[in-house]
């Protein structure tokens, strides 16, 4: 028998009166789910009458805890998605029909993780603006971010990058590591605890698979060759996957992580830019837009050098990107409603013989 508590499960997650066997999703293969439950590893599919016909349940993803009707001789049925403590969502609607946008609204790509390892390569991938973006997403997710500067063995001196990352991520641990030499890995011990789940967030080629292998002590994820001109590689993970290491810590890596969009990031923006938003309450007017209003504390701070204009512009850019994503979602959902209204009207006309 498998003890699901080792996978982070707490019995209080199950609402009172709900029936079913608890399980955790460890991988997603289109419409089929790999999961772990008290009977060990199994596979499951969504119960259509609950997830499609009723439409009240959130579609599960890697890391989700669910309730299942266990089937020892075939695929079990997934009957409920339990409440999430953290999640990453994707809001890239390209390639989807408006009907998809209307019904799904957001696509969760990872759930129920404790820490987010924000990974940037010291040799080519390092970018302060990327750290700001990833921090916003990480704080919004509900988990605790940690910034990892990878491939420390490939640079002679990274002190400036380390200082820049720490300025950008106040209050967040920033650690330079090398999966190849083991440098800095021991500093991750506070996060590598049994029953804890970590999500890796970063571009392809930053060394995510190499770090997993280093932490596991063996190769459990394939590592592609890196292009010499830009030190980048193709993402080697082909599906969303949760891996448990021998020490009991779990890691989620997924190809969808690099496509995460700015979905409802109000909380995350405030956490990532506490230095910026701290000036808002000091403006003369409570509805100050921080443009040309008299007594604007933000503009005053920029003029005095207290607040970097680059930092302020980064804040505005991320906030603008989030607003664009939200407006796009509203537009597409509105378009779907209009199409449905037209279709309903045409159906009524045809039925009455007026069409």
Q: Can you describe what's shown?
A:
The chain is built from nine helices and 13 strands. It is of the alpha/beta class. α2 crosses α9 and α3 packs across α6. β2 and β3 form a beta hairpin. The strands form two sheets. Strands 1-2-3-5-4 form a five-stranded mixed beta barrel. It starts with 20 loop residues before the first strand and ends with a helix.
Question: What is the compact description of this entry?
Answer:
This protein is of the alpha/beta class and 355 residues long.
List keywords for this structure.
single chain, 355 residues, alpha/beta, five-stranded mixed barrel, two-stranded antiparallel sheet, 13 strands, 31% helix, 21% strand
Strand content: 15-25%
| Distance between the ends | 63 Å
What structural class do you assign from the helix and strand content?
Answer: alpha/beta
Instruction: Count every helix, treating DSSP H or I runs of 4 or more residues as helices.
Output: 9
Mean pLDDT: 82
Radius of gyration: 23 Å
Low-confidence stretches: 93-104, 225-237, 328-333
Let me know the largest β-sheet.
Answer: 5 strands, mixed, barrel
- Within the largest sheet, what's the order of strands? 1-2-3-5-4
Bulk shape: globular
**N-to-C SSE series?**
EEEHEEEHEEHEHEEHEEHHHH
- Report the count of strand segments: 13
Instruction: Give the % helix.
Output: 25-40%
Secondary-structure blueprint of this entry?
Layout: E1 21-29, E2 32-37, E3 40-46, H1 48-54, E4 65-69, E5 76-81, E6 87-90, H2 98-104, E7 107-111, E8 115-121, H3 128-141, E9 144-150, H4 159-168, E10 174-176, E11 197-201, H5 208-216, E12 240-244, E13 250-253, H6 266-272, H7 274-277, H8 297-304, H9 309-352
Parallel strand pairs: 3-5, 8-9, 8-11, 9-10, 11-13
Antiparallel strand pairs: 1-2, 1-4, 1-12, 2-3, 4-5, 6-7, 12-13
Helix pairs in contact: 2-9, 3-6
């Amino acid at each position: 028998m498998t003890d699901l508590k080792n996978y982070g499960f707490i019995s209080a997650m199950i609402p009172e009166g709900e029936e079913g066997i608890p399980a955790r999703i460890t991988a997603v293969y289109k419409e089929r789910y790999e999961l772990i439950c008290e009977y060990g590893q199994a596979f499951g599919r969504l119960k259509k009458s609950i997830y499609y016909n009723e439409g009240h349940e959130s579609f599960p993803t890697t890391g989700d805890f669910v309730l299942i009707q266990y089937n020892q001789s075939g695929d079990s049925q997934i009957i409920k998605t339990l409440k999430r403590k953290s999640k990453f969502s994707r809001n890239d609607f390209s390639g989807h029909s408006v009907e998809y946008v209307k019904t799904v609204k957001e696509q969760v790509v990872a759930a129920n993780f404790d820490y987010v390892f924000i990974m940037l390569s010291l040799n080519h991938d390092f970018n302060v603006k990327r750290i700001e973006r990833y921090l916003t997403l990480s704080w919004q997710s509900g988990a605790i971010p940690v910034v990892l500067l990878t491939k420390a063995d490939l640079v002679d001196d990274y002190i400036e990058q380390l200082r820049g990352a720490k300025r950008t991520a106040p209050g967040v641990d920033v650690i330079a590591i090398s999966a190849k030499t083991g440098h800095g890995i021991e500093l991750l011990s506070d996060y590598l605890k049994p029953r804890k789940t970590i999500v890796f967030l970063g571009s392809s080629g930053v060394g995510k698979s190499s770090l997993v292998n280093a932490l596991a002590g063996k190769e459990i994820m394939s590592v592609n060759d890196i292009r010499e001109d830009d030190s980048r590689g193709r993402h080697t993970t082909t599906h969303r996957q949760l891996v448990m290491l021998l020490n009991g810590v779990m890691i989620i890596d997924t190809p969808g992580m690099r496509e995460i969009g700015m979905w409802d990031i109000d909380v995350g923006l405030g956490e990532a830019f506490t230095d910026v938003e701290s000036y808002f309450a000091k403006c003369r007017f409570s509805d100050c837009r921080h443009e040309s209003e008299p007594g604007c504390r933000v503009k005053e701070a920029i003029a005095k050098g207290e607040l970097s204009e680059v930092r302020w512009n980064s804040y505005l850019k991320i906030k603008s990107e989030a607003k664009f994503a939200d407006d796009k979602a509203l537009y597409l959902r509105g378009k779907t409603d209009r199409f449905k209204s037209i279709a309903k009207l045409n159906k009524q006309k045809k039925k009455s013989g007026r069409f």
